[in-house]
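Reposting from the mailing list since nobody answered there.

I have sequence plus structure tokens for a pair of proteins and want to know whether others read the tokens the same way I do. The first protein:
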Amino acid sequence: MIEKIKALCVKHREILVYLIVGGLTTLVSWGCKFLWGAIFYPGVTKTTVAQTTMLNVVENLSGILFAYYPNRRWVFQSKNPKVLQEFAGFFTSRLGTWGLSYVLNLLLCNVLKLDYRIATVLVSVVVVIGNYVISKLLIFRKKKEELEDLDAGETEKQ
């Protein structure tokens, strides 16, 4: 049984590590957002458009800045020597999901009048999935040579 669990963990390592890093990123970004809300908007649960915007900026910038390195290093194990170019792609892709996050937050908070903390949780699910797909397919995609090296390593282990 333990061997089967180990095999599953090895097989799905990337997704498992992404969930851990995503959880940590969520803690950092929500922590910054909720701390900002507590300091600058004490007692407010139904935010104005300006407050929703500011909270969204704080949440997303802190999340993007925190998330790049662990995604590069531990999730996707990138060896790309063009770190600044890779970071620019990462940042740009996260701006795209940030836009989605912003629109959904405006809709949930300011149109549907949901508590901004509940909206944050709902929107985060959509954004996490989108970020993984974009990172996997566009930002940290493995080059053909890297995939061949990985396949060779797997063959040697067996």
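The second protein, same order (residues first, tokens after):
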Amino acid sequence: MRIAICDDEKKIADGLRTLIEEACKSLDILIEVYTDGNVLLQRFEKKSYDVVFLDIEMPAIDGLSVARKLRELSEEVFIVFLTSHVEYAIKGYEVNALRYLTKPPVKDKVYEIIEYVQKKQADEKTLWIKTNDGEKKLKLSEIIYIEALNQKMIIHATSGNFEVWGKLNDYEDKLCGDGFFRIHRSFLVSLSKVSGISGCNIKVLGGEELPVGRTKVNAFREALILYADKEAF
């Protein structure tokens, strides 16, 4: 697990690092500490982290601004705010933050967060795909939609687009039980990435519009409702 800590108070950052190391001795964890949010963002663009502990109040760039940029780069990163003022915590909802920790962080609370992330990663379903660069493991949560294009397919994901060989029917068989729906002969879409519906078109994460086959509109709407109900629990 890759963890970043960003706090302009190095004493707080180093103390949190020690807490994580003490609480998670049995886990394979890499921790890197930053005192400037801009430096963290530059690093994140090259290699992402699984969890970012982020101070809300920093001079160069505040934590909320950093969090918004992180969320643009990744839908998957877990963001945990560090704050001395609880009233700031509600702003975390704007960037889908996992939670907040009051300063100085408490060991038990830190361990709860790491344990939660570890469980989420263990439960994460993946798909092995064959690309021109070899085999790659892709998280299902990364996939936005799969497009059949002539004799090949394009997997559109939050981490990039991947050209693969195969048949859309095969992917439909594999993924239909994991929140995916065949909306058209050429498109298999992740229901979690649908952001809007307009007539026979849907909008997905990233703003693209995709057509829904006229014979599939009602079934698609039903599948979307069932998926939303299931995720609500």
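Reply #1 (J.P.):
I read it the same way you do. The domain at 126-231 is CATH 2.40.50.1020 (OB fold (Dihydrolipoamide Acetyltransferase, E2P)).
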